[in-house]
């Protein structure tokens, strides 16, 4: 978000200027600068491998050539006890926690020591075959006498879900260097050798290389049922009883110029303590298991199993060693170490042959080529400092969501198997975003996601029984096996919103997908019915009002979970019961009475219960607060206290007592906005606008998905005048730029899905929950292009939005019908009968009448304030006086202070050849015999450069502004409001870096501007400074307005500006400066004019380029401004000079 739009309650989501990763074709590569300052855990998370079943998280190489990976398996977990506040058999005594199955190390030892890296290896992730590459160059032995390269590849198969593999190719072996002549490079990423030994330089070089494959298992969590080597291991969780089988194949091939050999390995079994006594024990026979007493898993009993290992021995390591002797006469061309593994849950898997790494990669490419051929997503900002930065984030998110989609029938962990423990839990609230995403991009995968929920239905029925419901199913918020795995949900108010969200996904799936198998229709309807039938049992009728209430049930917002009358619960339950009735009637017509009767009999439901759904749904009344004109989060939300004082620490749940949070008027997930976004047919646009204005300022954004909700509603409400792009940018970049520093906790898959929804439902303005496809794309300020694809009823539609057109194209399927804008029906097809194919249509994005005088307005920030030039003068005066005092003391000479006339003449009217270089201040200093270099924006305030002085001035100005808190001129404020209300796009620009501070003290005008440019952006984008008009041209481009249809409000335009440049705009207004009229005596010069021929050529014959605006007679309405353009207002003064007197 623009940094000065952040509300006092909002969590910071600022995206850094320097990206961590870059997009190189279809490869995500780590930036060369990032390796020096970014934690390796960020790279590990982004570059990990997964197919939804397996997760392999690599640990980045830092100083030695060793490759370590942690392996996670979806659905493999340990049980941890729940600290129950209430001792009740109705509450679970344990919950699931994701497990790390093992750690795999592929090491290269040189004479017993690890090879040393000379520099950080380049790393990349190939989005075309899902392969990770790390290129270790110039690996050195400890004495520096041996050097070689090591190229690592890792791939997780999307064809065989239990398979992953890696190989390392060691090559370019060279001898000759010694500790005496070893020369290290000058790269800042170079690491010095760590194990240099004193050797005889005349001795013949010879090295013993060991290539070691190690699988390590944590004995505190796992019992070994079988395993005497790396090749075959059988594990069992000590707490959950889950059994995991690991079968591997490790080889080492040595290639010489004339032949190739395979090294016979040595096997070893070691404990962490170094006890070798375990090596002679035989664990090849599977241990006997006993019945489980775990409520989460009926399989192997993990609690009573005995272990051969002492609990003090924390880790057991299975090793396979390949030994190779190297000398100048036996140098290989390359050595290839290959590791392949299969992980099978639930027992021993049948034996299968392993493919090669190259075969896996080729299969991956075929699978991903098919995906990328039909899936497009792109969002480009104008003149990005780093090319394709947003595209990288979007492609990465889409790639990850596709990778995990191969195992959706078994559940989608919130971290997508990118980390262990809670990241391996399924957050079923995030399934709402996943369900919408997969329904609109790959319906078969959406069906698999729903099938995974259906597999939890038996346990969900048990959950309903636990809370004394006669029938139905209760789905938890976080789970693996169907029981609740977040402790706060077991004793606080029930969180049953997931039931309604499952109903929403099912209804949306039926609306968007036409071809559904009969068996699938039946079990989907069963899931819909079972989740809906809990609502009549959970609420009660208020007889005096004739309404049905669902109290003491909380929604997804953790910060509003203790009050009754929850808006989201009542709305979603009402719509859930309405949807289930509609769906039942549709399936009755399609499948017949007999199928429906059998289904109802199967779940013990009669038709009277169905009719009760109708009465209960109608009895739920969603009331708007008449006084505020909004919907309240809950009944007592407007009675809570406002958060005052200092900004809160985020996340609030980790920094404040729950009672302190619950007593304040704030939201984490804006449930009201989420409900209105999902069920748009129930609300008018004016309701969206009012509620957005109210809840945006109260949102803490502690849950990143909140960014998507607010951004999408903002786009829906305000279209091209929305401010949601910065929110969207932070959301999309959350993982690849580690925006909130949570890399160790895994990736945020809910963010990936919700950011896609924010683009399609927000910018594309697709109406969710409708049975007809509605699209009305907007084009917010700052964007250059938006592209996305959606699947609808068997066809795939591509949508492209630019500043001129919205283009729709049918890229797959035979036919698609949809509604564009306000009711324009469009039918794209491949041709039928006598009709020729119509695959593409372009619709003008904006239809302008051209009757208005202008479409946009750009304001120089200084023109908005009466006293800002005085404040600038005071800040520069104090900053220069600090410098002059030092020079006076050091050089014992008199230095004149900065005068007002001097400031006006040299600083205000400073002329720059290119971007700002503080030439005015430079001239002031030169007049006093002081010559300072320009420096860089990073110079500290005490550094004697012009940028150092400028940074000191910014700090001084911030201190002055905090005391004076300047306000926008009332006339300007009124004009801004009227322009914005009239549909005029507004931008604010300045060469100063104090824009953030000025807007902080004027929050009421912030929402009126669509775009801004401050001194930092002007420097980064090399925007030419005064007297060039580049900053105004850039602002017009940002708000998508032709400069010829744009007016500019600036100051001091009488010197240096070229008439030909000014003529690009509709009109410049030179706003009077009070500093000039009150503090200096200067004569303004005539404004520049075009020659007669030039004026005639551009159609400005007799029309001035600049009109002067008096502060006393500022126009406050668009009508008054247009009158000035027509020349009907006497307040206009142009061309002639005006005297400024003291």
User: What would you say the CATH architecture of the largest domain is?
Assistant: Alpha/alpha barrel
Q: How much is the average pLDDT?
A: 87
What is the total tally of β strands?
41
Q: Structural class, judged by helices and strands?
A: alpha+beta
Overall number of domains: 4
| CATH C-level category of the largest domain | Mainly Alpha
> In which range does the helix fraction lie?
25-40%
State the end-to-end distance: 43 Å
Q: Please compute the radius of gyration using only Cα atoms.
A: 34 Å
Q: What general form does the structure show? A: globular
Beta-strand percentage range: 15-25%
Regarding quaternary structure, how should these chains be classified? single chain
Pfam families: Glyco_hydro_65C (PF03633), Glyco_hydro_65m (PF03632)
GO biological process, one term: carbohydrate metabolic process
InterPro entries: 6-hairpin_glycosidase_sf, 6hp_glycosidase-like_sf, Glyco_hydro_65_C, Glyco_hydro_65_M, HAD-like_sf, HAD_sf, PGP-like_dom2
GO molecular function: hydrolase activity, hydrolyzing O-glycosyl compounds
């Amino acid at each position: 978000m623009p940094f000065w739009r952040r509300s006092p309650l909002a969590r910071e989501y600022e995206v850094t200027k320097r990206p961590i990763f870059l997009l190189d074709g279809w490869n995500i590569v780590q930036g060369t600068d990032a390796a020096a300052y970014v934690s390796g855990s960020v790279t590990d998370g982004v570059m990990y491998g997964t197919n939804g079943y397996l997760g392999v998280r690599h640990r980045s190489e830092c100083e030695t050539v060793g490759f370590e990976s942690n392996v996670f398996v979806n659905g493999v977990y340990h049980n941890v006890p729940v600290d129950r506040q209430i001792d009740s058999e109705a509450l679970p005594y344990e919950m699931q926690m994701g497990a790390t199955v093992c750690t795999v190390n592929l090491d290269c030892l040189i004479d017993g020591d690890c090879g040393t890296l000379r520099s950080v290896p380049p790393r990349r992730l190939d989005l075309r075959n899902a392969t990770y590459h790390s290129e270790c160059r110039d690996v050195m032995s400890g004495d520096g006498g041996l050097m070689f390269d090591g190229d690592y590849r890792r791939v997780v198969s999307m064809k065989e879900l239990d398979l992953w593999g890696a190989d390392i190719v060691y090559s370019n072996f060279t001898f000759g260097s010694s500790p005496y002549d070893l020369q290290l490079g000058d790269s800042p990423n170079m690491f010095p050798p760590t194990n240099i030994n004193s050797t005889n330089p005349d001795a013949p070089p010879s090295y013993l290389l060991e290539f070691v494959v190690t699988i390590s298992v944590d004995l505190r969590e796992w019992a070994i049922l079988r395993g005497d080597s790396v090749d075959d291991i059988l594990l069992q969780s000590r707490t959950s009883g889950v059994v995991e089988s690991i079968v591997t194949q490790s080889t080492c091939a040595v290639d010489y110029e004339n032949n190739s050999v395979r090294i016979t390995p040595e096997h070893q079994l070691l404990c962490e303590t170094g006890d070798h006594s375990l090596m002679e024990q035989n664990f090849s026979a599977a241990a006997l298991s006993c019945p489980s007493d775990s409520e989460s898993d009926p399989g192997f009993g993990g609690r009573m199993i005995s272990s051969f290992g002492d609990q003090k021995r924390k880790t057991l390591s299975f090793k396979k060693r390949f030994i190779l002797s190297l000398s100048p006469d036996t140098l290989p061309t390359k050595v290839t170490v290959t590791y392949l593994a299969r992980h099978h849950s639930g027992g021993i898997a049948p034996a299968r042959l392993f493919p090669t790494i190259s075969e896996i990669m080729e299969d991956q490419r075929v699978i991903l080529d098919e995906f990328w051929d039909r899936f497009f997503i792109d969002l480009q900002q104008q003149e990005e400092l780093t090319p394709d930065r947003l595209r990288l984030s979007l492609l990465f998110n889409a790639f990850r969501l596709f990778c995990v989609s191969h195992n959706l029938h078994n559940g989608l962990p919130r971290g997508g198997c990118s980390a262990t423990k809670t990241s391996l839990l399924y957050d079923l609230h995030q399934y709402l975003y996943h369900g919408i995403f997969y329904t609109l991009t790959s319906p078969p995968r959406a069906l698999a996601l729903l099938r995974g929920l259906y597999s939890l239905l038996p346990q969900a029925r048990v959950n309903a029984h636990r809370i004394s419901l006669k029938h139905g199913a209760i789905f938890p918020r976080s789970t693996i096996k169907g029981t609740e795995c977040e402790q706060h949900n077991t004793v606080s108010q029930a969180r049953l919103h997931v039931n309604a969200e499952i109903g929403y996904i099912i209804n949306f799936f039926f609306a968007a997908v036409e071809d559904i198998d009969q068996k699938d229709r039946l079990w989907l309807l069963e899931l819909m019915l079972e989740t809906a039938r809990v609502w009549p049992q959970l609420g009660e009728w208020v007889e005096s009002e004739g309404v049905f209430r669902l109290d003491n049930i909380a929604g997804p917002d953790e910060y509003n979970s203790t009050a009754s009358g929850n808006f989201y619960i009542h709305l979603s339950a009402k719509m859930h019961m309405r949807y289930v009735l509609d769906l039942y009637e549709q399936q009755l017509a399609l499948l017949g009475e007999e199928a429906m009767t059998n289904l109802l009999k199967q779940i013990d439901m009669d038709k009277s219960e169905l009719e009760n759904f109708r009465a209960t749904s109608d009895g739920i009344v969603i009331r708007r607060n008449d006084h505020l004109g909004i919907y309240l989060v809950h009944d007592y939300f407007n009675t809570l206290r406002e958060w005052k004082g200092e900004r809160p620490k985020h996340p609030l749940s980790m920094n404040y007592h729950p009672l302190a949070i619950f007593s304040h008027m704030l939201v984490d997930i804006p449930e009201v906005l989420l409900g209105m976004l999902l069920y748009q047919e129930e609300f008018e646009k004016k309701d969206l606008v009012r509620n957005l204005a109210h809840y945006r300022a109260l949102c803490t954004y502690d849950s990143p998905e909140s960014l998507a909700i607010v951004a999408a509603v903002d786009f829906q409400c305000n279209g091209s005048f929305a401010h949601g792009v910065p929110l969207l940018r932070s959301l999309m970049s959350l993982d690849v730029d580690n925006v909130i520093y949570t890399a160790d906790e895994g990736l945020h898959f809910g963010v990936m899905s919700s950011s896609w929804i924010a683009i399609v439902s927000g910018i594309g303005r697709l109406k969710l929950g409708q049975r007809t496809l509605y699209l009305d794309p907007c084009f917010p300020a700052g964007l250059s292009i938006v592209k996305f694809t959606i699947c609808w009823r068997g066809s795939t539609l591509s949508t492209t939005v630019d500043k001129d057109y919205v283009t729709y194209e049918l890229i797959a399927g035979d036919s698609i019908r949809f509604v564009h804008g306000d009711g324009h029906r469009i039918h794209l097809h491949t041709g039928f009968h006598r009709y020729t194919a119509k695959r593409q249509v372009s619709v003008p994005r904006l239809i302008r009448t051209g009757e208005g005088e202008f479409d946009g307005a750009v304001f120089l920030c200084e023109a908005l304030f009466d006293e800002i030039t005085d404040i600038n003068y005071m800040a520069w005066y104090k900053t220069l006086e600090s410098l002059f005092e030092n020079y006076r003391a050091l050089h014992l000479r008199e230095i004149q202070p900065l005068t007002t006339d001097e400031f006006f003449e040299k600083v205000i009217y400073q002329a720059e050849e290119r971007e700002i270089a503080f030439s005015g201040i430079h001239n002031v200093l030169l007049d006093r015999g002081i010559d300072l270099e320009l420096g860089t924006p990073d110079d500290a305030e005490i550094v004697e450069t012009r940028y150092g002085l400028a940074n000191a001035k910014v700090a001084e100005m911030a201190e002055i502004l905090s005391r004076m808190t300047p306000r926008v001129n009332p006339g300007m404020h009124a004009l801004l409001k009227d322009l914005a209300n009239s549909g005029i796009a507004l931008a604010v620009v300045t060469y100063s870096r104090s824009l953030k501070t000025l807007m902080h003290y004027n929050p009421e005008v912030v929402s009126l501007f669509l775009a801004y440019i401050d001194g930092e952006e002007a420097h980064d984008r090399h925007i030419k400074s005064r007297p060039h008009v580049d900053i105004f041209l850039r602002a017009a481009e940002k708000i998508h307005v032709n400069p010829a249809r744009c007016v500019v409000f600036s100051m001091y335009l009488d010197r240096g500006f070229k008439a030909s440049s000014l003529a690009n705009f509709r009109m410049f207004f030179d706003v009077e400066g009070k500093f000039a009229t009150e503090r200096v005596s200067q004569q303004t010069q005539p404004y520049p004019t075009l020659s007669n021929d030039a004026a005639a050529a551009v159609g400005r014959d007799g029309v001035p380029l600049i009109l002067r605006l008096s502060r006393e007679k500022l126009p406050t309405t668009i009508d008054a401004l247009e009158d000035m353009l027509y020349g009907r207002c006497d307040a206009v003064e142009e061309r002639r000079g005006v005297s400024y007197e003291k």
